[in-house]
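Thread: Newbie trying to understand structure tokens

Hi all, I'm a second-year student working on a class project, and my supervisor (Dr. K.) asked me to get a predicted structure for one chain before our next meeting. I've only ever worked with sequences, so writing a 3D structure as a token string is new to me. If someone could post the tokens and maybe explain what I'm looking at, I'd be very grateful. Here's the chain:
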Amino acid sequence: MTRPLAAVPDLESELDGLYALPLEEFTQARNDLVARLKKAHQAEAAATVRGMKKPTVVAWAANRLVREDPRRVTALLQAGEQLRDAQQRSLAGKARAEEVNDAAATERDAVRALLGSARTLLGDRASPSLLDRLGQTLRAAAVDEEGRRQLERGRLTEELRAVGFGPLEAVKQVRRRGDEVARAARERVAALRSESRSLESEARAAEEAAQSAAQAAEALAEEAEQKRVEANRAASELAEAEQALRARR
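---
Reply by user tm_fold:
Sure, no problem. This is what the structure looks like when written as tokens:
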């Protein structure tokens, strides 16, 4: 009688390794793990792993930051927790606008630092669009409980987006006066205005870099076209010379 294979000893470790792989290797590695689990008679675990989605490029980039730059990810999560706490206390009338603004600025700085790391880690894959979506995912994960857990483990599968007032949506609903709500809204507008200015500056810099690259590409295209004309002329002269040589023989 054939004895059953031993169970996969540490499934969590296997999953950590799975999400640490290059994105193009994820599907095959997941399927291989499913097959191993089936052979080990772990049908329930195999079904769970089979249902795990391949991360999007943005989610994969966030997961990679967790592994490559854990110190800055920890700083972001702490900043997100402090921002949420400041906003909760503000809605309860127990925090000043300056506290919320300072916490929001700290969170933005933490996100900006991680995006700097992402540019280095991802190289050519770090397009402005990807970095923008990555920044939104990091902000959302910092203040959303489920997103926070997934980011901490480096197992995000999808992009995240903070909706509306972001962390304010997680605040317990309490009886509050209209002026408190208005104050919280003003504070959020001020924080978003500051962030908008910063991102506008970054966007202009990216556009200038893109324009310079386009001009350089245009110059290279013109040079290539000129070289092609010269190459065609040289080929024509060569053909004439070869024909003349054959005629003399």
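A couple of things are worth pointing out once you decode it. Residues 11-50 form one domain. DSSP finds nine helices and no strands in the chain. Feel free to ask follow-ups in this thread.
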